[in-house]
Design goal:
3 helices; two-stranded parallel sheet
Length: 72
């Protein structure tokens, strides 16, 4: 089994890898921002992405539900 980072090391040259990581990071933040503009939000599990969406939204979701997957 390989880690995603190991697969990316095989797929990209060092110069391309840096650009790829930058693109992925920008796309991730943009996706979180777009989700924060929705009226409602449902999330599964606990993650920093959910916290980021909630932060961008500033408490303006009409409906918000977060499943506690794996929590006792």
């Amino acid at each position: 089994m390989k880690l995603i980072a190991e697969l990316e090391n095989e797929k990209y040259d060092p110069d391309e890898k840096e650009e790829h990581i930058e693109d992925m990071t920008v796309n991730y933040f943009y996706a979180m921002y777009v989700l924060s503009k929705c009226d409602s939000f449902i999330a599964s599990g606990i993650s920093n992405g959910v916290d980021m969406v909630k932060g961008f939204n500033q408490g303006n979701f009409r409906h918000f539900y977060q499943f506690s997957v794996g929590m006792a």
